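User: Let's play a game. I give you a shape written as tokens, and you guess the letters that built it. Ready? Here's round one.
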């Protein structure tokens, strides 16, 4: 995004708004919608607040999802080169609703979700979790063919051990899918 440069802000006052404030990006501009009865002081306070909120949201989500996709492409190049069309996901995202799973994938729409809990883990473990889900785009079930694909990743065994250790430490989280 624009880094530390302050974006152009357009404030729109609405008589229908009572107290809700919202903001969205429109190209280079940020549009902030505020209630008409806000004072100038309230306006500037809310503009600052909404800009900070927007920046936090974009920095946290957009950057790391893009990074995750770049990581997926690198892993496919390295370990699944023969499957470039099959293994490339349509979307890959960090999510907070994995219910104890490290990652999941939906072969039908080729989407992959990785738990935010994996974000804090070492790079080589993140790579394993992601490669595991990429391999599911090729082979949906945990059969011998699937594990043979996963085993192309040199640290697969070690990463599974790491994840089992974390799962054991956090009481009864299920094993990675
Ligand atoms: Zn699995």
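Assistant: Ready! My guess for every position:
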């Amino acid at each position: 995004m624009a880094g530390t440069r302050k974006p152009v802000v357009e404030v729109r006052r609405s008589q229908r708004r009572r107290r809700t404030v919202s903001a969205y990006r429109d190209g280079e501009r940020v549009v902030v919608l505020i209630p008409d009865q806000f004072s100038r002081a309230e306006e500037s306070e809310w503009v600052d607040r909404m800009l900070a909120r927007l920046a936090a949201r974009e920095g946290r989500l957009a950057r790391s999802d893009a990074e995750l996709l770049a990581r997926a492409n690198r892993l496919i190049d390295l370990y699944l080169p023969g499957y470039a069309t099959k293994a490339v996901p349509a979307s890959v995202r960090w999510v907070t609703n994995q219910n104890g799973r490290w990652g999941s994938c939906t072969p039908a729409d080729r989407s992959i979700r990785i738990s935010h809990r994996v974000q804090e883990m070492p790079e080589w473990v993140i790579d394993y979790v992601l490669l595991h889900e990429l391999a599911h785009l090729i082979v949906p079930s945990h059969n011998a063919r699937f594990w043979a694909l996963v085993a192309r990743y040199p640290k697969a065994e070690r990463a599974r051990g790491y994840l089992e250790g974390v799962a054991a430490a956090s009481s009864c989280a299920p094993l990675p899918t």
